[in-house]
Structure formats: C-alpha cells, structure tokens
Amino acid sequence: MTTFKMYKSTGEEELFVSLSQEQLKPLDTDKETTTIHLDDQLTYQEMDGFGASFTDSSAYLINQILNEEQRDEVMTRLFHPEKGIGLSVIRNPMGASDYARMVYSYNDMPEQQTDPELTQFSIAHDEGDVIPLTQKALELNPELKLFASPWSAPGWMKTSGSMITGQLKAEWYPAYAEYFVKYIQAYVAHGLPIHAITPQNEALYEPGHYPGMLMPAEAQADFIKNHLKPAFVQNDIQTKILCYDHNWDQPDYPLTVLKQAGDEVDGVAWHWYGGDASAQTKVYEAFAGKEVHFTEGSGGEWIPPFEQAFSNVMRTGIHILRNYSKSFVLWNMALDENNGPTVPGFGRSTCRGIVQVNQQKKELTYTLDYYALAHFSAVIRPKAVRIESTSSDDGICSVAFKNADGSVALVLFNDGEETANVQTELRNEELLCFQMESKSVMSILIHPNK
C-alpha cells in the first residue's frame, strides 16, 4: 500500500499546512488533466540540502534580541527534521558582509601595518553569536553542512588598504590561503567542520559601501591552484573548494577557472541576481563531475509579497534543482523590521530574511521565504537523489527526489492562472489525482508499498 504525506500553500497567504488524502479536491471533469510522470530509474544529483546564512546581523538578532523561549522555538522550527523544516545547509560569511553591525575581518591591523604570519588571527567575533547558533543548528540537525565565503580579505592584503573595494595583492596570496586554513581549523576546534568554501563572494562586484573584493577569473584560478589547494593539502584539510559564487549571467568566469584550475576545484557556486539557472547546466555539462551549488538568493521588496514573491521563490527554486544544484540556500536567516542591521553607510536595505525579528517589539515572524523553503526541505532530505519528473503541461512545474529511506519527494507549483487538474504517476502507476489552485504549491512525500 502506498502512503502519502502532503503539504500545501496557496498563493494568497503564508501557509504550510499538512493535508490528508481525503482533503484533496477531486478532479474537475470539465477540464483536461495534467500528468506528472515520475521515473526513479533515471537519476541526477544527490542533495546536500536547503538553508540560509547566519550573517552577523542574523546571528545577533536571533541570539541577542529574542528571549530564550523565542530562540529555542525559531532554531527548532528552522533546523529540526521532524519538529521543524529540517534546514541542512548554512553558508556563513567569513568576516563582515553587507549585513553586519560593523566592518571586520579575522585579522584586522592598524593602517599601514601588516601581519604576514597571521599572528593576530582570531575568530573571537564569531564566538559571540554566529558559532553558538551554528553549534545549536548542528545539534538539532546532525546532517547539517557548513559552507563559508569571505566578502573581502583583510584590508592590509588589498590594493585599497581596506575591506571596501580593491583587489587581493599577489604578494599576499600565500597569507590569504593560510587565512582560510586558520578559519577552518578554528571552526573545527568548536566542533564545526566546514564542508565547502568559496574564495570570494561575488567576485565580479566591487561595492563602494560595504566589504567586497574584485577577483578576476584568472586571479581566482591562480589563487586556488597555486596557493589555496596546496595549503589545504599541506594541512590535511578535506574542505571542498567551490569557485565563482556569483550570478548566472557570467558563466564564462567559472568556465575559465575550471579550465585553468579544474583539478583543484570541486564545483561551482551560483547566485540568482542575474541570468538564468540554465547556466548551471551549461557549466556542469562542460565539466562533468564538478558539483553545482546555489549559495545565495535573497527575497526583497523589489517583488511584491505575498503571491508574486512566493511564486518567484518556488518557481526559481524548482528551476535551480532541475539544473543539477545540490543545494538551495537563500540569504539572511533573520533581519529586523528595517531589513537590517547593515554595515554603517549601507543605506536603506530592501532584503528580506527567512524570519523577521522586530527589535522594537521583540516579536518573531516567519516570512514567506520560510514557507517556500519548507516546501522543499520538509520532503527532500539530505542524500536524496533527484529523479526524472515530466509534466504534460509546462504551467505545472515539478521536481522530484528519492530519499535515502526509499520515499519519493515531489514538489509541484501551479504557475498558471487557473485551477488545474493534476494526476501523478510513478513507474506508470497512478498515485494521486487532485486539483491545484493557481499559484499554489503541493509538496508530497510518497512511501511506496507501505
């Protein structure tokens, strides 16, 4: 006997509700039926998971603004596989990003001074909020994987002399490689193994008002091949190296890095602020065996909530997974009522967190991104393998995975303007038939022969 667990959200409100089979709307006999065919014999990538980032701002809000009861609640709802939505990936900034209360690295020095031996290296800043919350997340979900990305090298290593603007000076490539080694070793000392790093967040963008660092493709290939990977080997570090960490619209960048340093690179990290997710497949097909990861995409005020913004996350998330990504990571885990805190001088923020922590009222709110992530992470578990899913109507988007326990996870999004009839099949055996409202989502966990 096949059993099902189902979750539904409509395009009208923030919901993630569990349904019984009896609660599904029967087919409308006056309409054609869309068939979703699943084939678990045709497989693709293995999933690491879904998540967001403990930026300095996010960690501060959750760890210091919320009370203990609220903090326990939100951490459980974010990371616990049964009591929550089971997020299993965290991407932490290495030092300050745009969402930090101050500009800092792990090796700041007075102006005109350098520290070639990194004697002043310290992750003490992270020990306040970021590390305790990351440890708690790992305790709640032992399958958690940690990713890390710097927004900038310490200012003294750069042409600008600052964490804002500039490039990494070639003379400091060895020291910067050691900077990564020390970071990874320091986190391991706190019981937090780093699964993967990228050498630079958004390497083609040089912001003038928050930490950033321009790193052309040839420079990144040189740094990885001749400095970072050798430093990892010398220190017996198994952390994976992902290149690029930027938008879909410049696939030539990762292609260049993989061509010049492919043996030292484990995969490519992508963002959604330009281009299309099909770029992931273009690079994947050019360099078979290199992992694909989606490491940052923020929701925000530029897309009106609820329906349009929710639909965008679902539509794009499905597309990301159908283009070989092993992860789907949004941006800030938490932001406040003003979409901050941000670094001084940043200006008005328009980004949205997975949760909102109101600093004035000390209130906790789960945003539409939380519910969108839930539709993926609650049914697609770590080590799940994507299987073939085809739809007879392009208006019904789908992605499916087979979990390690044999269950099949299916996420459906009705991108059409009308209610649709949907029929699902696995190996030509009919499973479920139901109606889907326009802009609604159905997440289905199928346990065959149980």
What does this structure look like?
The protein has about 450 residues and is α/β, with parallel strands linked by helices. The chain has two domains: about 5-45 and about 385-445, Sandwich (Immunoglobulin-like), CATH 2.60.40; about 50-380, TIM Barrel. Helices cover about 25% and strands about 30% of the residues. The protein is built from nine helices and 22 strands. It has helices at about 55-65, 70-80, 130-140, 175-190, 215-235, 250-260, 280-285, 305-320, 370-375; strands spanning about 5-10, 15-20, 35-45, 50-55, 90-95, 145-150, 195, 240-245, 265-270, 290-295, 300, 325-330, 335, 350, 355-360, 365, 385-390, 395-400, 410-415, 420-425, 430-435, 440-445. The strands form four sheets. A nine-stranded mixed beta sheet has the order 2-1-22-19-18-17-3-20-21, with helices on one face. It has an eight-stranded parallel barrel with strand order 4-5-6-7-8-9-10-12, surrounded by eight helices. A hairpin with a 5-residue loop joins strand 18 (about 395-400) and strand 19. It is globular. It starts with a strand and ends with a strand. Keywords: Glycosidase, Hydrolase, Signal. It is an enzyme of class 3 (hydrolase). InterPro entries: GH, GH30_C, Glyco_hydro_30, Glyco_hydro_30_TIM-barrel, Glyco_hydro_b. Its EC number is 3.2.1.45. GO terms for molecular function: glucosylceramidase activity.
